[in-house]
Design brief:
This protein is an alpha/beta fold. The protein is about 40% helix and about 20% strand. It is built from 12 helices and 10 strands. The longest helix is centred in the C-terminal third of the chain and has 25 residues.
Length: about 300
């Protein structure tokens, strides 16, 4: 009798038929076979659902399910995270894919340290039409106790990784209420901070997950319009109102996080002003505006850089 899977890989799918097969094939190519795969289709109209049904014939460990209605990005990721029965979960975006030894390297970590609630791999940005992939440096490496990474994450951004490069313990994800239901573009950051505030985590930079970033992706469009920064701003405000997160912050850490909120707010406002559009209100609890001038300029420069990089 085969051993039960140690990890559930869930692929939330919507109109990514040209790339869905690559994601599924990358799971089939894993050197560690202790997985089950669920493809959750969100009412695709481009043939992705038919491909998901066909994929169930490729391996007995592949399952496909279709939502009765379109749930949207957050809703589909949230639903996909509930599928399967394995103690660990990986949410693999339909246009991303895994390096063949990804699961092997993560399994080696969690098998020796079952207390870990999150293992972060290294994100590699796959850029069609560009000169090579972009390998993101992992800022941290090794094991960290609950709360040790919170100050750095709130001051500098998502250092844990995207959904596709992070493996989480199922019970830990359920303890924070699962994937955020109303945060389509920074939900991963919000979930990982909440888990890192409560449980020990691990950074494994040798485990590689490839993020597709072509001009046809929603991520690319959101990068170019600044909406990703807007969602990060909202997420930071929400996290700083959570006592289970802020308990790990010193007054200096709190000020650094608040400066980032102001920097993001000014960046979004300036960006929208230049492009034409409404500006969100700034929280009443904020540090002096001048303290956020430099990070504001840097964030705005990054926004324009992303826009130019995706345009030319």
């Amino acid at each position: 009798m085969p051993n039960p899977p140690w990890i559930t890989i869930a692929i939330p799918s919507y109109n990514r038929a040209p790339l869905l097969e690559r994601a599924v094939r990358s799971v089939l190519a894993q050197s560690d076979s202790g997985w089950e795969l669920w493809i959750v289709d969100d009412q695709s109209t481009d043939g992705a659902w038919e491909l998901a049904q066909a994929a169930t014939q490729w391996s007995p460990g592949i399952h496909a399910e279709r939502n009765t209605e379109n749930l949207g990005l957050s809703g589909n990721f949230r639903r996909a995270a509930t599928k399967g029965r394995a103690p660990y979960v990986l949410l693999l975006a339909a246009d991303d894919y895994l390096e063949p030894t990804f699961l092997d390297k993560v399994h080696a970590v969690v098998a020796t340290d079952p207390e870990l609630a999150l293992v972060s791999g290294r994100r590699v940005q796959h850029r069609p039409g560009k000169r090579g992939n972009r390998y993101y440096a992992t800022p941290l490496c090794g094991r960290f106790e609950a709360g040790q990474t919170i100050a750095r994450a709130l001051a500098h951004g998502n250092l844990y990784g995207l959904y596709s490069s992070v493996v989480v313990r199922r019970d830990a994800l359920e303890s924070i209420g699962g994937v955020p239901a109303d945060n389509p573009w920074a939900g991963d950051f919000e979930a990982w901070v909440n888990i890192a505030a409560r449980y020990p985590i691990y950074f494994a930079p040798s485990a590689l997950a490839f993020q597709h970033l072509g001009q046809d992706t929603q991520t690319a469009r959101f990068l170019a319009t600044g909406r990703l920064v807007a969602y990060e701003w909202k997420t930071l405000r929400r996290l700083l109102s959570d006592e289970s997160v802020t308990v790990h912050l010193s007054p200096k850490d709190q000020q650094a996080a608040e400066r980032r909120i102001v920097a993001l707010w000014w960046s979004v406002n300036l960006y929208r002003l230049l492009r034409g559009g409404p500006c969100p209100p700034l929280s009443s609890q904020r540090p002096a505006v001048h303290a956020a001038f430099v990070p504001t300029v840097l964030t705005l420069m990054k926004l324009w850089y992303n826009r130019l990089r995706l345009t030319y």
